[in-house]
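Subject: Sanity check before I submit

Could someone independently write out the structure tokens for this chain? I want to compare against mine line by line before I put it in a report. The sequence has 450 residues.
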Amino acid sequence: MSRRVVRQSKFRHVFGQAAKADQAYEDIRVSKVTWDSSFCAVNPKFLAIIVEAGGGGAFIVLPLAKTGRVDKNYPLVTGHTAPVLDIDWCPHNDNVIASASDDTTIMVWQIPDYTPVRNITEPILTLEGHSKRVGILSWHPTARNVLLSAGGDNVIIIWNVGTGEVLLSLDDIHPDVIHSVCWNSNGRLLATTCKDKTLRIIDPRKGQVVAERFAAHEGMRPMRAVFTRQGHIFTTGFTRMSQRELGLWDPNNFEEPVALQEMDTSNGVLLPFYDPDSSIVYLCGKGDSSIRYFEITEEPPFVHYLNTFSSKEPQRGMGFMPKRGLDVSKCEIARFYKLHERKCEPIIMTVPRKSDLFQDDLYPDTPGPEPALEADEWLSGQDAEPVLISLRDGYMPPKHRELRVTKRNILDVRPPPGPRRSQSASDAPLSGRGRLPRGTPAGEPTRELA
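---
Independent answer below. Compare away.
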């Protein structure tokens, strides 16, 4: 009897390849801030990168097609008074991006389809509610205009960007700095990791910890966690001896890991990028020069090593293209945007196939740009799975859609009791409220940025 030794999987031969030199983005001064975020966000229209900026914080937004050398005077998105720490594109509007900064604010920007002539300095909305730096941003996967932020004040705030108001504030769950936050596929639960070494599953609308696991990884260095398609939690962290480690956990039974594997000795935090369509997780360590990828399945050992993409240069950050932005005609199943010191280089992950036909086993229907819920529906307790689209005929990004912010008139809000301050009510930003750009009357929707 012959025993089958090799595991059957269509992703066993995934290989990575750096794009040709003329497909890279050159002469970009990538930020040198010491912060463990990816510094890069990408969607089917634009590439955004946090850059060095004198006297404040800035990021650059390039149309995907604008490869080659970037002019040193190319307009930036500037508005923060301290370094930008995280950026995230809205999944339901390819022209809207949020930025979080050391200056304690979050700004929401409308990026025009044309190249602006000068720096974009006026956000559509400024969200003020954190008392310390804001280092993590994450849009809700299925509800329109719902944005999560996590700050150095150990608080998670969930905002309605359509009105600029706080929907929920989770301020007594984390006793220490929050290292990562991830929504599950329909946005019902959050997985968070914290400096107190605890992995938590949180129901944000109830404000309750549903399940938690202390010391999922025993080392003191930061942990990361993402939800998988099966509802498990995939984590990266460190052992007590500073070995990098990955784990797979079942939230219904946190006592024992589903899988736990030691990797190597390195002090770079492993950023996990998970693709639910293929159930492949890609691990990109800051300062590493490689991307390791694993397939997560239902059979032991549950986390199967596939391969490593290696290059010579270490990565300063990494962007991960949503599935709808990939080239299905080339059997591309993932595309990364690797940040070097002075450039950004696309890395394409491909499954080799002989046929030129659409490979429907590689491309199941995937989340599209339409939200499944409105913000108030989600807040009232409704849940909905993402609205899926087929990639059979490729994906064309929809035309420019303007984000409308309808503000309540802050003059209608009674002033707080107590001694009067010299600042007038109309000038004072309310705690935990969004602020409109200068010159916009309260109570009116903002206009599109020119």
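---
OP: Matches mine. For the report I'm noting this point. The longest helix spans residues 375-379.
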